[in-house]
């Protein structure tokens, strides 16, 4: 029970990694507040947390909106009296578009993506961290990416947004450390999912080969010869959130099965 009795807030709690985080944190003893834009998705995740025997609160939130971010913090602290852990995982999907091919609509999606990742993370920390500072303790874990330190064509929105969160985390670690609040990152690489499988199938068709050949080639470039799972990522988050990481701040844990070393 690494998080026994803790109150955790997860932003960007969607049906993938966010759901896995919420359920595993509940199994480790945390009561969980989930925030995202979809009320229906949040209600389902809250139900899974409660099925684990923990308390849950669903707060529909656009985390890039200052008023909604403030309301999330007030609602969470008002319900549970405090917040011990904040996990920032919000990020809209990337659109895979080269910069010179972007029209006005693509440029607006780029702005929105970076705003959700960077400004949204900033707002969540700005409004929730004061509750941790008042308590003299707390842990913030920001989900960045392997792409935060190495961009490639068509993904500038994703890379820029995650890179901003990466360095914001360093700044916050320095600012909040004297108050006993730790700030760290978990940087996933590829995560096993239907979306990743669909991308591999599309590449296989483009290269006139098989899905199995593409998957074998990709995993051969990973030291562990496998693709990380949502649970692999969630376990790293849970460790950083727990008291076992009491002397760790300003750090990044890479969870990419050895696809990229730092």
UniProtKB/TrEMBL annotation:
A Pfam family: adh_short
Highest taxon in the source lineage: Bacteria
UniProt keywords, alphabetically: Oxidoreductase
GO MF term list: oxidoreductase activity
InterPro entries found in the cross-reference section: NAD(P)-bd_dom_sf, Sc_DH/Rdtase_CS, SDR_fam
Keyword Plastid listed: no
Keyword match Nuclease: no
UniProt similarity note: Belongs to the short-chain dehydrogenases/reductases (SDR) family.
Xref: NCBIfam families: PRK07890.1
Protein name in the entry: SDR family oxidoreductase
């Amino acid at each position: 029970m690494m998080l026994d009795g803790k109150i955790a807030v997860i932003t960007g709690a969607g049906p993938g990694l966010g759901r896995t985080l919420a359920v595993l944190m509940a199994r480790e003893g945390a009561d969980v507040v989930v925030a995202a834009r979809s009320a229906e998705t949040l209600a389902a995740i809250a139900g899974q947390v409660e099925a684990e025997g923990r308390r849950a609160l669903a707060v529909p939130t656009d985390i890039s909106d200052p008023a909604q971010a403030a309301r999330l913090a007030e609602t969470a602290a008002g319900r549970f009296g405090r917040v011990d852990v904040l996990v920032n995982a919000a990020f809209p999907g990337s659109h895979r578009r080269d910069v010179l091919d972007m029209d006005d609509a693509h440029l607006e999606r780029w702005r929105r993506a970076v705003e959700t990742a960077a400004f949204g993370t900033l707002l969540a920390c700005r409004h929730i961290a004061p509750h941790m500072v008042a308590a003299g303790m707390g842990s913030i874990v920001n989900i960045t990416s392997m792409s935060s330190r190495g961009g490639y064509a068509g993904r500038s929105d994703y890379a820029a947004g995650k890179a901003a969160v990466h360095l914001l985390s360093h700044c916050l670690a320095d600012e909040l450390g004297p108050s006993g609040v730790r700030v760290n990152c978990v940087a996933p690489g590829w995560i096993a999912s239907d979306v990743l499988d669909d991308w591999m199938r599309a590449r296989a068709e483009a290269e006139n080969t098989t899905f199995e050949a593409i998957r074998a080639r990709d995993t051969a470039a990973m030291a562990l010869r496998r693709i990380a799972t949502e649970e692999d990522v969630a376990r790293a988050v849970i460790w950083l959130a727990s008291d076992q990481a009491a002397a760790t701040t300003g750090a990044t844990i890479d969870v990419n099965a050895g696809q990229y070393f730092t």
